[in-house]
Design goal:
This protein is of the alpha/beta class. Helix content is 23%, strand content 37%. Strands 4-3-1-2-5-6 form a six-stranded mixed β-sheet.
């Protein structure tokens, strides 16, 4: 009988962001040590007995490491991109938005590799006391 397997991976990255539509300190460009927790679920590959190589998650999240993340409509994008790469998001790069973006990227990586696995839950921490969580019940 084939069952469902779940795995968990925790990854950290350093990045700066600002919230263009926020009235308060987070309107200014600032940085965090972000922590991403990922719960995956799916079918184990019969030969390797692996659901998903943990490095796949690490590589996806690693794309954000030491980057500036801005709303694509932020006027800072044009200025900063003259000097370095800027990751842009549709809407402000909140922990809530990043959770959905990263989940989509990981799911896309699985689908592209033909892996029968998907995100069950993801948490994105922007500090030691604040996180956003997306839960995907119907995967």
């Amino acid at each position: 009988m084939a069952g469902t397997t779940r795995i968990y991976k925790e990854v950290y990255f350093e990045a700066s962001h600002r919230l263009l539509h926020y009235k308060g300190k987070c309107f200014r460009l600032h940085g965090h040590q972000w922590r991403v927790e990922v719960w995956m679920e799916g079918a184990v590959e019969p030969a390797s007995k692996i659901l998903l190589d943990y490095n796949t998650i690490k590589q996806v999240v690693g794309r954000f490491d030491h980057q500036v993340i801005l709303n694509r409509d932020d006027p800072m994008v044009g200025c900063l991109s003259q000097f370095q790469e800027v990751i842009t998001t549709e809407g402000d790069p909140t922990s809530e938005n990043l959770a959905g973006i990263i989940a989509g990227m990981i799911n896309d990586a699985c689908a592209g590799a033909g892996i029968d696995a998907g995100i069950r839950k993801i948490r994105v921490w922007e500090s030691t006391s604040c996180y956003a969580e997306c839960v995907y019940e119907d995967q």
